[in-house]
Design goal:
34% of the residues lie in helices and 16% in strands. By secondary structure, the chain is of the alpha/beta class. The protein folds into 2 domains: 15-256, 3-Layer(aba) Sandwich (Aspartate Aminotransferase, domain 2); 257-359, Alpha-Beta Complex (Aspartate Aminotransferase, domain 1). The strands form 4 sheets. The chain has a 7-stranded mixed β-sheet. Strands 11-12-14 form a 3-stranded antiparallel β-sheet, covered by helices on one side. The chain is globular and about 60 Å long. The two termini are 30 Å apart.
Amino acid sequence: MRVYNFSAGPAMLPIEALTVAQSELTDWKGSGMSVLEVSHRGKDFVACAAETEQLLREVLAVPDNYRVLFLQGGASGQFDAIPLNLTAAGDRVDFIKTGQWSAKAIKAAKAQGLEVSVIADQAASNYTDTPAADSLVVDPSAAYLHYTPNETIGGVEFGYVPAAGEVPLVADFSSTILSRPINVADYGLIYAGAQKNMGPSGLCVTIVRDDLLGRARPGTPSIWNYSEMAAADSMLNTPPTFGVYLLGLILKWVADLGGLPAMAERNRAKAEALYGFIDASGYYSNPVAADSRSWMNVPFLQANAELDKTFVAEAAAAGLTNLAGHRSVGGMRASIYNAMPAEGVQALIDFMTDFERRNG
């Protein structure tokens, strides 16, 4: 039985894409082989990768002067790869710190001999909000400004794009990619681990503007050198082939539903329903500032924290899985990525209503 999987990642994926993958798993394109078995240099997979890239360009409206890279190592690998490609030792880089994932990116940059300036740190709110847009002052000499549009653990999301001037803006879109339209041209580089809205873990999509290529430090590993990977169409080594294939199926699903504008309406409605219920409840609460609430990751607390494990266990028995909050935060967290249907959110609300009636 399929459950409603509220995991923060690897996350619930669209059943429509998974069903196609299932039907093709042992015999892809009449080859008598699985897509997991074919050569990444064979004409069928080369065409598959090219189609996936073209679909991504169309769905995200990626400008022609950006390269799309299919990389390994997840978003965490890019915490190291970005400084290697965009800076020299001693360069200044600016960061906005809004939670644990931006903190990890900061730590990686510091390890590479950079002058790291955290121009906004939301520690005073315990990372439950985002800085005011007009409070950000970016050093024009910075090699880039990095921020995390959506902090998966804390459920904190930017409602605006930080203004960086001529400084390249770099963003970790792992938890919000494909959830709504974005203007790729606002960014010098965006990157996203696939395991939320794009497919299985192991694949990271990096989209980088052409003028930022060719800056890699000497000694940068070739598989993380953006110029070398772009020149090889992301096939300098064996790419995460199944991830690229499944991303293509998911992009077709997004396009069939009406593209990112339709996905935005779908996600907005789900988030508004869940937050509306929490706010109206006298039993549940959400700790995040109203203007910084994530559409994708909704943390919530109940009045009696001693019942958290009971809540999670009873929810799982009801087919609502992976609702425990991150170990560093506690409480509960519902991740409602693209593949989570409105029916799943309503089933969660119904369960929460009943749990409150029995325990409130």
